[in-house]
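Backbone geometry tokens:
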Amino acid sequence: MYLQVSACWCVHRSSTPPSRTVGSSQNYRHWVYTIPADHRFFGGGAGIVVFWGVLSRARWRMHSIRLAVRSCSPLVCGAMTDPGTTAASAHRLPKQTQRYGLDLHLWQPEEAAALHAVIPANVDHLRPYMAWIALEPQTLDQRRELLETWAADWASGGDLTVGIWRAGQLVGSGGLHRRPGPGGLEIGYWVARDHLNQGIATAASRALTDLAFTVPGIERVQITHDVNNLASARIPATLGFRRLPDRPSCIAQGPAGTGIEGLWQVTKDEWRVH
């Protein structure tokens, strides 16, 4: 993820996409820069978001740009939350869980080689809905730096980005993200092509939901996906999340993205009795 910069616009783009990519909107971590209010447009709504992978921060230190530690953005259309200022952020997210036959834990730099083996083998599979694939290829060193960034983000009270492992094999990646703002977390996930249709995304999302509700102050968990990503939509439906009204997406879109995201939510009380 380097050199290429992309703007995230709250607009609709039409397309005729495939529907087999299993992955939610918050499926992979990108550093995000947001333009200050005086440089925004759309009436102070979403603003401009540009994302990058693992370029040296020094190259991007500009007085007019501030870093927002978020998977593709801390934006909800028309509103912005800073992960460092929410009440929930006072609690560092738990960094691991082993449930439902899976091991989900915070990515460690020494696991870069495993990620480096899986991503190139899944570029075509992930490309339709994962904007960050356009920023491939990356070197092993770049992936290691990215994992270090995710670990630092978590340590500072930000998002949790995890590898999804089964029997010691990397099968995907996911996370808990603070985009919903105080009291909420959003689940992200993607699953490697060779491990589709094995219940992995559902099990990982179930485990992440369980984990999210152990965090003090978290009362709701959300999952978002492009409205045409039908494979991803089946995950929250299976888990008993409620479908909320679709909304314009304020995160970067893959080539099959419509610019409209499906939104699902479950509350702590609902999850307890599910």
Notes: Helices lie at 112-121, 123-126, 140-155, 200-212, 230-239, 268-273. The chain is about 20% helix and 25% strand.
